[in-house]
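just leaving the lab so this will be short. what follows is a protein written twice so to speak, once as letters and once as structure tokens for the fold. can you read through it and tell me how you think this chain folds. thanks a lot i owe you, the record is right below.

___
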Amino acid sequence: MSVGLKLFCFAEPCKGVNRHKGGGAMWKLPSGVSGRLVDIAPDRAKSLAMRRSKGQGVIEIIASLLIFVIMICVMLSISLFLYVQHATVSAVREGARFAALNPEIGDPATQADGIDAVQDYLINASQQLAGMQIQPAEITVTPPDPGQPQGSRTVRVEVRYDMQNPIPIDGFMHAFGTTGDKFTHMPIYATATMRYEE
């Protein structure tokens, strides 16, 4: 298909309305003007159209790749969150089991030492399971209630951890005018309660 620039070549003025047939269409010329419709530089016009088409193609490819990379980062972030959450639940259960068998927690005189021992155990377990760097302040150990009868007392271990996502998804989200805070900081929470063995 030939693409060209259309230009009127005017001749001497005349009266009335002149019509010119070209390309299967009826072209209406201004009143009082005679002329003919010609093609000017079709090769150049075709070259400009091809350049414009190539530029649009490059932009579409870049946008598609950006969306694809963001989707991959989101999927990896969700997978990492689920893995760390599962590992945290396992570590908390191990910590609660250790606390239920720790005689120091049940004695008010040695209760503080027993809580420290549970926190240290949970920190080591979480680091081995998922490489997490949990701080003692993020671990809550509820010792057994001395007011309850023996055999029915429980001990509870709770972890609240703010995981930093190693995948730089926040930078990609800025390209769309938004932030990826939900994927940059992922709150991890797990709790376990077990009967205290006396």
In short: The beta strands are 5-10, 19-22, 25-28, 35-40, 139-142, 154-164, 185-195. Residues 1-29, 36-40 have pLDDT under 50 and may be disordered.
